[in-house]
Amino acid sequence: MKAVSADAKVELADLGAVRVEAAGERQATLVRLLRLRWGLAAGAVLVLIVASAVVAPWIAPHDPLAVDVRHRLAPPAWMEGGSAQNLLGTDQVGRDLLSRMIYGGRVSLVVGVSAVLLSSTIGVLLGLSAGYAGGRLDWTIMALVNVMLTFPFVLLALAVIAVLGPSLVNMIIVLGVAGWPIYARVVRAEAMSIGEREFVLAGRALGMSHLRIVFRQILPNLVSTIVVIATLQVAQVIILESFLSFLGLGIQPPTPAWGNMLGEGRLYMLNSWWIATFPGLAIFLTTLVINLLGNALRDWLDPHMRL
Amino acid sequence: MRRYLARQLVQLVVVVFGISMLAFAILHVLGDPVLLLLPQNAGKEEFARYHHLLGLDRPLYVQYWKFLSSAVVGDFGKSWYADTPAFRLVLERMPPTIYLTFAGLLVALLIALPLGILAALKRHTWLDSLCTAVAVAGQATPIFWLGIMLIILFAVRLKVLPASGYGTWQNFLMPSFCLGAALAPLTMRLVRSGVIEVMNMEFIKTARAKGVAEPAVVVKHAFRNACIPVITVLGLQFGQLLGGAIITETVFAWPGVATLTVESIRNQDFPVVQCAVILLALVIVSVNLVVDLVVGFIDPRIRAGA
Question: What's the ipTM?
Answer without folding.
Answer: 0.80
